[in-house]
Write the structure tokens for this entry.
Amino acid sequence: MSASPSGDSPRILLCNDDGIHAPGIRSLATALDGVGELFVVAPTTEQSAVGHAITVRDPVRAHSIEFEVPSGPVPAWGVTGTPADSVKLACHQLLDAPPDLVVSGINQGPNTAVNVLYSGTVSAATEASILGLDAIAVSLCDWSAPQFEAAGRWARRIVTWALGHGLPPGVLLNVNVPARPHEEIEGVALTRQARSRWEEGFDRRTDPADRPYYWLAGTFVNLDNGQKTDLSAIERGYVSVTPIQHDMTAYDAFDSLADGDWDVSFQDDATPEA
């Protein structure tokens, strides 16, 4: 999808999963000030690691929020829902016209490898892609004391490129910026998602009423030594740009699975009797 017709300022919707008051989305808005007409719709509270959850059994409310960038105030709403809820509500109710681009972030912490499946930041951008919109997720690979300036500068570059070139249908960009000063970043690398997993466990504890409860714990395991992965790019000091999509079909598996006679294998008479 391309941007607005020539001469029109592109409409850019900002979202995140850290909440509308988080410093990352404020830094993103400041970095994109002047690139287009900005709108902010994001959760009122932190929604990290909610993935692509949507709210279906409770009402979702939106409240106008004061939000400013150097050039002046920006229309902004806080949503009592998830990142995906925020994008849905923005596009279907809050905005008077669809955005040309949705940018989610800047997330505090990386969204690389298998973590894209858990990320609310990436899911907000994915929801936009499902709606037929160009979308970018931006994360800063720093949990402790994030400095968003370099990530904001790279977000502006990539957003400007995306507005000028457009993205393939159904494809969004997952951008991860290394935790380095701008002048120490080596450049940008087009990457693939690294193979990885979490080796998880639960810390069992007991409350004052002697009832057990659990805290999720785990260790991240990189299963991929490839040099073209998002993890490798970040380790080498490059901004990682990974094209991803919501179509999760394993197309490479078709040939290996085609050897079976599916019509015969799944006939009713092949099912054991109870």
User: Anything to note?
Assistant: Helices lie at 23-32, 83-94, 120-130, 149-165, 230-235, 254-257, 262-265. The CA atoms of residues 268 and 274 lie 13 Å apart. The mean pLDDT is 92.
